[in-house]
Amino acid sequence: METCGFVELMHSFELLTRITGDPVWADRCEDIAVNSLPAAFDPAQRGTHYITSANSVRLDDAAKTHGQFDNDFAMQAYRPGVHDYRCCPHNYGMGWPYYAEELWLATYDAGLCASMYAASEVTAKVGTDGTAVTVTEETGYPFEETVTLRISTPRPVEFPLYLRVPGWCAEPALRVNGTPAPLRAAPPCYVAVTRTWRHGDRVELRLPMRATTRTWAKNHGAVSVEYGPLTFSLAIEEEWRRYAGTTAWPEYEVTAGSPWNYGLDGRSLRLLRRSARGNPFTRRGTPLEIRARARRIPNWRADDENVIRPLQDGPVRSGEPAETVTLIPMGAARLRLTAFPVIGHGPDAREWRLVPIATASHTWQGDTTEALCDGIEPSGSGDQSIPRFTWWDHRGGVEWVQYDYPEPVTASAASVYWFDDTGQGQCRVPVSWRLLYRDGDTWLPVENPSAYGTARDTYNRTTFTPVRATAFRLEAHLGDGVSGGILEWRMEQG
Ligand SMILES: [Zn+2]
Predict the structure, then answer these.
(1) Which CATH number is 451's domain given?
(2) How many domains does the chain have?
(3) What distance in angstroms lies between residue 97's CA and the mean position of ligand 1's atoms?
(4) What separation in Å is there between the alpha carbon of 92 and the centre of ligand 1?
(5) FRET pair for 493, CA 20 to 30 Å: which of 61, 160, 333, 368?
(6) How far is the CA of 5 from the centre of ligand 1 (A)?
């Protein structure tokens, strides 16, 4: 997500809170404010990057080309003074100030609402006669679960005090001047305490937090780890290198100094609270850590441009030993794994496919070889809604696409789903094709291929005598005057 977007979403959610009074907007604003927004800054908050990701294992000063975004400059290094980033640096500075302004809201019934929580102080006119009261809020939220409010007022005044109970909090507890107050809450909600407030009155709201996992069904069944409003990420060793900028405004790349390719094994999470000082959105300053059980997934690797590859369907089989890993708040992790695959042990556990590096004899600038093996299923050969690969604007003749594997794989079958935009463009299924493997410096055809189909709207599968190689090439003979393309090309490994 572009860093601008965090600030813009927070601002939109703050306005929606005011307009609708629906606490879900404050929940969503807080979620971004305590997770994604701090994750977008360097620890000193001097610089930001353009794109911030839930899973991000390298922030380098290199442009990426595999269709991540339509920009030709590096988007993940911290580059405070660079014009390329334009919108983000002048937007992100507004995130925290707006948030501070929206912590407290006036209500329609002459009361006051603690909409979002942070150490703060507010002075406001309340009650039927508009008495100016000051409420002082003391809290370490979101790193602590108690919020204490102290009322200063020149005279007793009746007004409703609204407190937001976030949706993740099942069992909030309230005390007024030390006495438990009954609480009927169906979070997310606001609870109102209406009484005649006196100088020195104290309200204590407890929002008990638990370490839990949340499943992301639409992201291959991945899980994230949460504690109250905080989302946690794998703590990856960060190697910082200043490559440009000035001492006041340094530009940094960050690379990983420890493995990151873990899946979570089981749901046992242990929260540790440690004494820490300084900015809690830093590795050194965070007071919270979670220990979790995990196993590595050796086939999960970065692509040839050092970008972490997308998740695959879980649960995932792993033959690696179980380890205890440390998680820290996402906003304190500049490199991070936040969407975790789930390790499986049963018959439903799947192998993680080793994804090859895909290249081609030619690729149209708007398309990408990454589409060949992105696992996104086409709805038909003319599917315009998914990433694709085409040889456009090469027409006729022989063209190829190639998979290179980091280590030899044994393959015995391949399936190809052709792109064909008859009626719209000039790509057609090829006249013919064949599959080759690399043997030393030469390319040899696979032996005994069962078929080389060119059907539209389906996978064309061929089986052949198993062969072990580090590279495979699909060679296509294009029709006269037309080009061609592929939506998905699968090699069956093992
Ligand atoms: Zn921007």
Answers:
(1) 2.60.120.260
(2) 1
(3) 18
(4) 9
(5) 368
(6) 7
